Amino acid sequence: MSSGGKSDDFKSASRARKINLWLQIIFGIILYLGLNFMAARHYVRWDFSENRRNSLSPESAAYVKNLAAPVEIYAIISQGTNDRESASIIRDLRSVFKQYAYLSKKSAPVTFEFVNPHLENKKAEELAARFGSDLEDCVVVASGSRYKRIPILEFYNSSSSGRDFMAEALLSSAILNVASGKEPHIYFLKGHGELNYKSTNISYGLSEFANALSARNYKLSELDLSELREVPKDCDLLIIAGSKAAFLPREIDAIRKYLLNSNGRVAVFLDMGPLHGLEEILFEWGIMSDDMLILDSSGDYESGGGDLIARSFPQKPHPITKYLIETDMPVQFGSVRPVRPDMGSPIDDTLKLSPVILSGKSSWGEKSYAKGGMQRYDSDVDLRGPLPLAMVASRTGGGDLGLNIPGGKLLVFGDENFIANRWFNRLGNSKMALNAVNWMLEEDNMLNIPPRAVRTYSITLSRNEVFSLALRFFGFAFAILLVGIIVSFMRRR
């Protein structure tokens, strides 16, 4: 009887221990799932890295937290099985994307997605239908119907200290652009025989250029200064493309006031021949353009069509041409004239001049181009290359209280043909034109965010060193296992 009672007690105790064990397992799983659920909904990140380089700047964080509409980020990157470079880019971008997603609020979240166009054909087609073609190796930032495309090449910048990662500055600027709801307004000047942005004529129309601008959320309008006393207040950029007739003095005065008093933005694309009054504005901004035709004795000049292939850039490249340099993409100009600094103009400390693109070493500026026939370089009247084909002049309004106050910008190209319909989609022409507009309109919207250095770490070990290191790690693990076995054996005794 007592033996049966002990057996029953043992079975009951054993059953109780099993139930207790299963309850512990179940409660442990519930606790684990509950903690992960709470951590997914309510969590806090701390950044202990050097200079908080794994966190967004206070400026970016403030803007992201106050977004009024959701923002989508798509990174369209082709990646092969052993493509280490693409994998590194994806890793860098993912790290930054996560920071934007973490800081955004639920009512206006920032979401991101990586798309491999070669493997995810359906998704790639959906993005192409929404944002246009040529999306490969780009990051698209979108909010509603507004979007901004950023080539992957622009995220990295070579510097003296190595390679810098420009992602935060580019992404924050793009997010502000698409989420603000503001459409930058571009005016095309008319009334002097300028190229027409509404025309589809292959030689005198700018419809291809205009369509590309409209697709990038720019509002386009015409402007006739003979009917108005001043440039409209909502003008973000004034384009003067190939004027062929003289300006009225009050028209020149209106453009001068817009640049100097309103910190305006003006892009001028010059025709050959006289400047029709624009030389006054160029002089004030330290620029001159000789009435010369750039010729080149190398294969970069097509004598039959009068086109010049420009593939040279200043030693310190301008941001407008960064993409062209990285992709080794030249620009095809038509009849192009030199645009260079005017040493006789009243240049002051507030004015900065920068060449954008240059002719080749075998080029020269031909003074007697209108005579036709065989042209040869004449050192008495011609200019020896390389010569600037475009110049940027920008002013700053001062540096009070440590702030660099932006001023006006004047961009002058020595040719209007390369943005016309016939030339716009050749070589790097469209990239040059669109990058120029983007830089003119958005440089001041870029937050004052320093680039991040891309740091790579590597360890070089010999085979013996690897074996020795493995023995140490495994030896430590085996030592812990041995102690556990000994303790277990002693407890059983």
Write the SSE topology.
Blueprint: H1 2-41, H2 58-65, E1 71-76, H3 84-103, E2 110-115, H4 121-131, E3 138-143, E4 146-151, E5 156-159, E6 162-165, H5 167-179, E7 185-189, H6 207-214, E8 219-223, E9 237-241, H7 249-260, E10 265-269, H8 278-284, E11 287-288, E12 293-296, E13 301-302, E14 307-310, H9 322-326, E15 331-333, E16 340-341, E17 351-358, E18 363-366, E19 383-384, E20 388-398, E21 405-413, H10 421-424, H11 429-442, E22 452-453, H12 463-492
Parallel strand pairs: 1-2, 7-8, 7-9, 9-10, 10-21
Antiparallel strand pairs: 1-3, 3-4, 5-6, 6-22, 11-16, 12-18, 13-14, 14-15, 17-20, 18-19, 20-21
Describe this protein's structure:
With 493 residues, the chain is α+β, with helices and mostly antiparallel strands. The protein folds into three domains: 12-43; 50-180, 3-Layer(aba) Sandwich (Glutaredoxin), CATH 3.40.30.10; 185-445, Rossmann fold (3-Layer(aba) Sandwich), CATH 3.40.50. The protein has twelve helices and 22 strands. The protein has helices at residues 2-41, 58-65, 84-103, 121-131, 167-179, 207-214, 249-260, 278-284, 322-326, 421-424, 429-442, 463-492, and strands spanning 71-76, 110-115, 138-143, 146-151, 156-159, 162-165, 185-189, 219-223, 237-241, 265-269, 287-288, 293-296, 301-302, 307-310, 331-333, 340-341, 351-358, 363-366, 383-384, 388-398, 405-413, 452-453. The strands form six sheets. A seven-stranded mixed sheet has the order 8-7-9-10-21-20-17, with helices on both faces. The protein has a four-stranded mixed sheet with strand order 2-1-3-4, sandwiched between helices. The protein is elongated and about 125 Å long. The two termini are 30 Å apart.
